[in-house]
Amino acid sequence: MNLTEIIIENYKSIEKLKLQLNSYGNKSNESKTTILVGINESGKSNILDSINSVNHQFENHEFETTYYKLGDITTNEFIDVFYNIDQDSTFPFYLKLFSAKIKLPTELINSLKVEKFYRNIFFDKKNEIENYFAIEFENNLFWDDYCIETSNSSENVKEIKKVTVKDNAVYLNQNQKLLTKDDFELLFIDTINERLKKDFPKIIYWKSTPEHLINEKISLINFKSDTSTSLPLKNIFGICNYTTDQQIEEAINRALEYDEFKAELEESLTKATTDHINKIWKEHKVKIKIKFDGDDCKVHVEDLSTQHKYYKMKHRSDGFKQFISLMLSLSAENKSNLLKNNIIILDEPEVHLHPSGIRFLRDEILKIGKNNHVIVATHSHYLIDTNTPERHFIVEKNKKTTIKQLTNSTNFSDDEVISKAFGLNIFKELIPENILIVEGFGDKSIFNHCFSLLSIPTSYIIKNASSASKIDSFAALIAEERINSIIILDDDKIGRQKKSEIIRNLKNHFSKENVFTIRDILSDLPEDSTLEDLYPIDFLNETINIILERKDIAFSTEKNIIDQLKSFDKTLNFKGSKDRLDKIKIELNEKFRNQFKTKEDIEKKASRLTSFCKELAKRLILREQ
């Protein structure tokens, strides 16, 4: 079951709030992780706690102290949390289950249109709680054209039939009654309710509680009887392919009985856990030592920088203990393929962690979000995903808690917009660690298109400066923040001029090692070459003849394309012709991306562009951070 949205009403500082559950990013960076950012006391924890209401059922909550503080209890008597279910992906499946139990006319099945499909948890002023599924259909059919037929021996609904009409009168048998929209909705939910409960995503609220933390000593006797007493240890076994409680119990029993198997199990658990942690936290190399001592399992940590210097878990910092525990509670389970289709809630998991640890934590949370919806609340700018701004929602409280989603077009240097999230300018943290700067959108779209088709691996995010005339200002901002970057310019007069100016004026950050014209990358390009010189000649001939409504245009690879184009169409030399030339460039760009859609197309028919991208990739890899 997939959820699309969670709606919270009248909960503490929240009057009404909608949180979309989407996937953000592209390809390797795609993840269903949502990050809530905001200063302390903005209401982030209230959002998470209300989402978790499926689990806590408002236990230990008093209505008057939980109800929205500025609300009027006399006019709205409920605290509500709605979990909207994805109709398109789920309704056909549940309709099939329903119709397998209760026979339906084909005409009715084909007419059904869902308006709402959701789960609702509500809490009223009598401190009563309801937890139910509901579906609402569109009123697009005549419901009383049908009747409900029960079994003769019971009240159980057996079938829904088209009513019998004779002489303008409806005839019903004793065990039949006219169908209403309300009746059908209730019947639908009642029939599949147990399956809905089973399929509803599990909501996991990770906190620093004993069952989530890896402790110094864990009783193996207690653990093998109930593996939920230590989720990290359970997942340590999971990494080693002991994925069921029975397999874990059998392994522990053998280890307690046979010393040889105990040593073997200790070694395999130690190696698997160490490998897993070191893949995540690459900067901090450690060895996690798992040791069975009598009926207890003990966990020690060896700093590889100081060999054989072991620490008991109780002597490690709170941040280290929390990081390791989180990775072994969630990441290990995700790696074992046991963590799927859940909603995972994390409230400030970065607490006590060093900035480098927070970044590694962020990367692992994004991986977990490939198979689960992960909702993270943070006030650390180190936890943000610099490559995907739209993943973030700014949480603010001005009397009431509100959220605002960032977009790709967000101006990250605008303090007025972004400082609301953390109380500081986080321009540097909201831009990628590695940037490839190009002149305009056309360059960006072509390079992204080709990098994708050619499967060129790079951590660089391509940003365009809008035009060559603005690129030096963009470069100055990047230089000030010391962001690792490479600049690619056309080899025309303005491109060469901007290259010289950037290297001269920003020499502390830019040089000939990271500022290039396209001719620096591919030396066989003609003088004054631009992006258009990378297109295949056959493509240019065909496309420009169509655009200019000509049949006689034939380009050469010996001279740059723009000068040749201006010689074919003299009007492009006139003052004020820039807009028309730009439109031609845009049309070339769009037609190229529409025609060249596979790796084979690019490599066989666009050899010059292929060579350029591969040469550029070599420069990027050399300077990658």
UniProtKB/TrEMBL annotation:
Domain Endonuclease GajA/Old nuclease/RecF-like AAA: 1-384
Presence of keyword Glycoprotein: no
GO MF terms held by the record: endonuclease activity
Keyword list, A-Z: Endonuclease, Hydrolase, Nuclease
UniProt keyword annotation of Hydrolase present: yes
Record Gene3D superfamilies: P-loop containing nucleotide triphosphate hydrolases
InterPro entries xrefs: AAA_GajA/Old/RecF-like (IPR041685), Bact_Antivir_Def_Nuclease (IPR051396), P-loop_NTPase (IPR027417)
Coiled coil residues, start to end: none
Pfam name, any one: AAA_15
Name recorded for this polypeptide: ATP-dependent endonuclease of the OLD family-like protein
Species the sequence originates in: Flavobacterium beibuense
